[in-house]
């Protein structure tokens, strides 16, 4: 079993968020913790979490979410299956174990997850006449590098035609520009999944930021020579949800509740659309207006201003708290308090709505000691950026979490988060 913490890459206006790895092996044998151990470390005294159950998968606007050991025995990684086709053809492939990520925008598939016939049939995007377009998606300790291509993408029964996607790792290592720095994360072994499906509130992965070549993460390539280039929103890697013909104004992530000692797996539902069908009515207790990236900037943690990030792509809660003991070298980046803890967090967006969230924290070493559970609602680690609280996958268990797409550029609603 491995613990993988997802770090963030912040790029001026918008964040392109992908997964980096801090890996710790944990021993096998046995199931969860014993009842006596639970009493000793305080797990049994933690406040009860939310208890909402996912709606059934099967409707045209639903897709199954799976949290289990996945491809590489990594905990708290939600995945879905995605159908990818060469545009306008029946040359298609279903790619499984694609990470569901509400903290990024657009589809990114590792090149080796595609069969050769489909991989070669996806048209490469060209810019500046004849250069092919590539992207360096940066994050805390590395990057993904690959070409931008066009594909028809289907999730369940919802289709986004001719969608710009990134194919990770399909370009020669010699083509990586010097301005793209860090550790390359361009294989399944690096990412622990076959790809990343970004369904956050933004329609594109960097918007107007990439209209300036000095701040763009896109490159025009001739052979192995790649230089920064302008990328209009028409060619940027794009969120598929706003491209659907209907049920395209948002998504609902629904995961079942799990025990405070964890579960071997969890089966949830991704629902497309908000207030467009009988199965996606907005029933949240609070709705929060967010910034353009879907973050709540008016929040408060430990008496200090904070920004809340709602991110299924992070496998734990991540925040700075010097009173929580760090795990050390066995589970680097995670907290290992001697007894279970709860940290309150007040989330607030740009409007008046606010809510208190209890973040339960159990020692990462205790949680993974059994070696058989892969879904946890109380895993937490050190902050990713000063003043930010990352409400990662633990937050989503037992909740319906709504992400309203930012459609303001076309006269539609502003982005929001609700739960």
From TrEMBL:
Residues 1-24 form the signal peptide. Keywords: Signal. This is DUF3443 domain-containing protein. It comes from Paraburkholderia gardini.
